[in-house]
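Good morning,

Both structures are done.
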Amino acid sequence: MTATGTFLPKPGAAPLTRMIRAQAALETRMLLRNGEQLLLTVVIPSLLLVLFSTVDIVDTGADGSTVDFLAPGVLALAVLSTAFTGQAIATGFERRYGVLKRLAVSPLPRWGLMAAKTCAVLVTEVMQIVLLTAIALALGWSPHGDPLSVALLLILGTAAFSGLGLLMAGTLKAEATLAAANLVFLLLLVAGGVIVSLDKFPGAARSVLELLPISALSGGLRDVLRDGAGTPWRDLGILAVWAVLGLGAAARFFRWE
């Protein structure tokens, strides 16, 4: 205290970037400590990759190595499980138990919370990708293509699924979010080109499924990593549209309680 009524340090909110970094670090620690989340985000994609690469269970429609077809799809599945399913469920129950209500009275704005959660998802995904890549390489995977295109696909896919997950968690009850997020995960696992080629679906259905974010992500990754294609602008465009719509709707309709 330097003078009457004057205190040091001066009271007030921390800089916005510091608040987002602190919240992102907290979100990451909470995510990594949650055993159920780790099962969904790490164990299940790893098991699917090993199982379907080594056992002839489904016809992937792939010409050549099965793991070359599956690895990009499983990377897309990892993004889906972390950015959408896991985040929706965790945030939904945080909202139910009043955690978000308390954050609502802090200086951290709504979009800042979403940014922090998305950053935590990105950190988790880096660890997932490293693990899944190591497993796939051990199984004989031979990736090709431009790493920048892969990074753009993963970042836009994360933004798209993160927005959709937060929208679901911020508008539905926790129990409804739990059921809906798991149902969507299972449906997209089958119909999103992850382990079954979209060529196996009828033409009309395939045209609709190709517009889904999981199809754009898995298809774009497969075009680059398996076929060595250039920048998949169509898939990037689809993911960008989903990211803008999902994050915009979440920012507009997300309810703290």
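Second structure follows.
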Amino acid sequence: MCGRYASTKDPALLAAEFDAVDGTGDEAPGADYNIAPTKHVMAVVERKPAEDADEVERSIRVMRWGLVPHWAKDLSGAAKMINARAESVLTKPAYKQSATKRRCILPAEGWYEWQPGEGRKQPYFITLGDGASLAMAGIWSVWWKDDVPTVTCAVLTTDAIGAMTEVHHRMPLLLPQDRWSAWLDPTSLDPSELLAPDPSIVEALELRPVSTAVNSVKNNNASLMERVSLTEDEKPSPTLFELS
């Protein structure tokens, strides 16, 4: 967790929403309703646009999902490093440098989670439901081979809180708008005060049961995010649906 999510807005819309400039050029991926590990995604970063620049610039960039530390021999471990635990991100060697110097926001319409059950696992799409993007806290790194850089990223996760505990024990670290600047600030080397989940965002989430079609990465269309009706046998505890 988080192992799949949706990001369907074009970079111009994301730039407006996150008060950034579009730096994707011709690399921007198209709308993706079923993002899986190692796919290319859009991220929000703050960096100096040039070495001699006096101020940082917030921009939308393209990265590969699955962090690869700069010292890795190859890209083979990327799929196993799509998430970084907020509790240990500042101490684990693979993540520490990125957490202190290279933080990003990964915009999403929402993410998918599978609730365990006696039979098949029921997928849910977790979203704000009002058209606003979720700002998932992330970290990034640059891996080089033959003078060619590959920029990779990971989503930070925390213990689930509130209604999310009924779906999974982990959830992405979601940043409210008033934390965006502090999280992205490249001059701040200690983000420890920003690593706890914000209850107000979780309270606003819609936990939407969706079709098991999302189980296959080959399926990729807007219907994957649509609510489906569950039979009584498929429904989990009533609390979840009362909060949905």
